[in-house]
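Narrative progress, year one. The postdoctoral researcher (J.K.) led the effort to move from monomer predictions toward full complexes, under supervision of the PI. The following entry was the first complex the group processed end to end, covering 905 residues in total.
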Amino acid sequence: MKTGSAVWRGMRIWVVSLAVVPVLALPGQAQVFNPATYELDNGMQVVVVENHRAPVVTHMVWYRAGAADEPAGKSGIAHYLEHLMFKGTKTRAPGEFSQIVANLGGRENAFTSQDYTGYFQTISPENLETMMELEADRMTGLVLTDEIIEPERKVILEERRSRTENSPRALLSEQVGAATFLNHPYRLPVIGWSHEIETISRADLEAFYSTWYAPNNAVLVVSGDVDADAVYQLARKYYGPLAARELPDRIRPAEPPQRAPRQVVMKDARVEQPSWSRRYLAPSYTAGATEHAYALEVLSEIIGGGTTARIYNSIVVESSLAASAGAWYSPGSLDMTTFGFWFSPRPGVEIADVETAIDREIDKLLADGVTKDELDRAQRRLIDGAIFARDSVSGPARVFGASLASGQTVEDVEAWPTRIQAVTIEQINAAARIVFRENTSTTGILLPADKGDKS
Amino acid sequence: MTRITLRSMVVPVFACLVAFAPVSAKAIDIERVISDDGVESWLVEDHSLPIISVRFLFPGGAATDPEDRAGLANMVSGLLDEGAGALDSQTFQRRLSDESISISFSASRDNFGGSLKALTRNRDEAFDLLRLALTEPRFDTDAVERIRSQILSGIAARTNDPDTIAQRVFWEATFPGHPYARQLRGTAESVAAITEDDLRTFVTRRLARNELIVGVVGDITANELKVLLDKTFGVLPERSEAFTIPKAEPAAAGEVIVVQKNNPQSRVLFGQKGLYRDDPEYYAALVLNHILGGGTFTSRLYEEIREKRGLAYSVFSYLLPMDSAALWLGGAGTENSAVSVSIELVRNQWANIRAFGVTQDELDKAKANLIGSFGLRFDNSSAIAGMLVAVQRRDLGIEYINERNALIEQVTLEDVNGVAKRILDPDALTVVVVGDPENIKATRTIRDDG
């Protein structure tokens, strides 16, 4: 359902943009990575990007299942399972996979986000077949016992202490995430709350695994010094025999309308440098008012992309209120996303004064809009970025994996420069008015503890 | 289009027997380019994308900072692209962003370096901006104060960061009185003291042609590059000012220094004397370190501390050879109650390998991984350019990239066990713990409650 509608939207924008900007329809310019794409009989998607610069290949399998797909009250399962995927299967001993990758001179790792979980190895091309054999094996053959999951639970709690509890910034970020979403599971940290990590059972992990780890819920991306058709044949051999499963719809609880701005202020004795951020709920490529996504991407570049953008120029350079400042927008999430602003005040400057200056910039944007010159510059920079993105073996694989696991299509990725080029001033101004409303914002402020407090 | 093929990339591995493919395959094609005015660069031509990547380096980094101006090299690195020649900061930055040109500079202890990445269509403009940044930086007061405020807020933000504290305390304890004891970014006091004069003096003294190292990868021919080398680097002063950083032996052997912090997890940093890069046993040590704590999911430290006992998310070791000292370092993050056990496990592994050596199987697997994974470093043009610069800096020779795997292959069990006996010393480990560790015998405790 979701994927279907994204394809349809993509087609429409593609047609419109070709009509509006024929310049970009030149051969070789409209495409970014020129991948070969296949689908196995069991529904597994296959994307291959050939790159013959060096004898290296990146092999990735992405599952359309992340932290936001976990059952309520069991945050952290997706990530916990990601760790356990490095243990044994019915045919491989615990750690054997990693040992084989290491012996073959490969590098490997895995990652979990709200929307997907990914596994990858980078290795010399003649070992691709072995990687497929092993990855296919653990897609359905994982064996979990208490002896395996208990030490790993401790590792994950250490990881959480390391990443989150040792860092006031990370702790605040977790609180702000929980305040930004009232109902949608994006409110929960990907790694999970400690008290829930502690109680996740083997049955919980096995249930998540058997629900989501299936070829028809996976995307295979191979990038590097390979022949696309040969990769497809290998994929058929190793992933092809795996049976498709019935998958639940990825329908997460939706947000109710936000009717008031939210603010989280955290004081911590470990803080020496205050910081501020504010995020507005915003559409993504695939959720909410998706027609604004590309305009918002260009807007984010104009207002907050680097040292020549509006925010930096006004607050860091002109008025010297902040040491650094910027904006971000990440349209790739399956459900609603956020458009954010951030700054670190210069010493002695009140947070409120910088915040007022940011509000003035946003008000100015809403009143006067962006200029043609700003639009042209931002579009050129973004589209040039798509050329630089090709200067990597593993980078293109990550782009396809993340996009396809979050509701986008290969066509969406390839049409990205065309769609960026098609964005107009009017679209940006309209998108800004949709997104920058005080009532849909959440602000996070990190401050030193009051004198005498102990954290 | 250049295809980078590495000899000995092909390493077939069987369940326990490791066989090495014969040295074969064509080599990576590095060309030594010398401009009319005598500026040298190594070049890997690659016309598959309209992109050029440049890395360059001048020996002499943060270790040359005057003692009361620690952070000078770092501050210069933040300011060279903040206005140069007739272009003020915003104009310069605008040129970079409008033409999608990335220019950046950085300072390490031993080097001052930089990089440039641009599309072919903006190549000349990119080199011209780089020339301005290197030879005519403005250091306008507003730009200097802006970058100073960024550095100071960065220092403030890291004041209570456990990793930063562990590093600072470790280096101060290990190299007392030596420039390596100073922090790269300086302190709030030393950064506040840096003047525009200091910045200009650094540029005049350090950025010169005589020790310049350049590596270029991408869409450019040798003849095109020669012209740009002259225009960009040919105008630098002939000679930099000589400097000496005395050689240092790590101090504080055997110390356990606890920095008391109210954190739920302790950061543990440990280290001892290592090997210089030109040590004949360096490659043996590289293989040994891989077995000890270098392999991401396969090392002994990983196995003992994370895999078997779940005591840490991350545990590792690495060799750090520098110009004036050499270290063998490691680290872990572990729950306060598990710190003393984790340190004991580290010491045990250190002692165990020293006493009993490693097995043939461990050796074979480590070599296979080090050899096979070398080619993975060639993921993108900037990484290759970085390698060209590093190889020149270490004086390893233009054939090094093609010979490196054979050097690993030659390492024997006797080599590895010999270097273990010579270097590894559990009693020499200096350990720094930042956190609230339980049951630990500290030789020194620093209270730092934030």
